Each structure stands twice: as C-alpha cells, then as structure tokens.
Amino acid sequence: MKLIIAAHGQMAQEVVNSANMVFGGIENAEAVTFVPGENADDLKQKYQNCMTEGEDVLFLVDLFGGSPYNAAFQIAAQTENTDVISGLSLPMLLDVVGIRETYEEIRPWEVYDKLGKDTYIKSCRNLLNQQNEKEEEDEL
Predict the structure, then answer these.
(1) How close are the terminal C-alpha atoms of the chain, in Å?
(2) Pairwise CA distance, residues 114 & 55, whole Å
C-alpha cells in the first residue's frame, strides 16, 4: 500500500523526514506539499503523479476539510482502492507505517480501525492523576 502524505506548507515533507529518522527510511511513501498559489486541482495532479493505476493508496493529510483533504477526497470518491485519514502528525505516521509493516495485506480503509480510538494528545497531569486513582483503587 502506497502512502501519500500531504499538508499545508512543508509540513508533510518534514513529518516524513522525521519519520525516516525513526525508521531509517520509509518505503512506498511520498510527501506532497501544498504551497501558496496552488489549489485543489494542483494537488489532485500531484497526487495522481504519485499513483499507479490499481495500487492501494492511503492519503494522510493535515486538516479535515482543507485543500489537501478535499483533493484526496475527490480521488478517493472515484477510486475504490483508496482512503483518506486526516490529522497528520509524526505519531500518526509512525503508527501507520508500523501497521502497514505488521499487516502486509492490509487495505487502505482498514488502517483507520487499527489506529485505535485513543487520541495522540496526552496530558502529563491527566496521566499522573489516572495513575494515582488506580493506585488508590488497588489499596482498597
């Protein structure tokens, strides 16, 4: 499965660069930038240039409803073997690459369920409070 990572500005390229530092290189993934002066049609062309007919493709984009998402959605709506997940971050990309390596035959639309229902946003204080509450329950 091909990963196309897209975001406003240089974010997609930098998230891929950071993920490459962790994994030592990510295969079958391309970063697509969206810079001032471009529109959704420009993005669609960039996406199509990254795609091979019949290939499974998962788009990871930054903002739901933004131009990278809208362009990817237009492709996914017309192509059965694609999906789009918004909320791009380094933790998300690392998880998706790990899922793709663990489940070699996974299809794009199955990845979302494997990401889990937890959010990537964590509060140190909240985690400490949860731990303290658990310890208090264990004492009872």
Answers:
(1) 49
(2) 20
- Cα separation values, 100 from 64, 88, 94, Å: 22, 16, 10
pLDDT in tens, 59-71: 999 999 999 999 9
Name the pLDDT band for 128 (thresholds 50, 70, 90). Answer: confident
pTM of structure? 0.86
Matching residue, tokens 């933790």: 91
Report the catalytic residues. 8
Single-letter residue type at 87: G
Residue 138's alpha-carbon distances to 25, 31, 35, 126, 127, in angstroms, are 44, 47, 53, 18, 17
**Cα–Cα distance, 46 to 104 (Å, whole number):** 26
Task: Please tell me the distance from the alpha carbon of residue 117 to that of residue 49, in angstroms, as a whole number.
Answer: 33
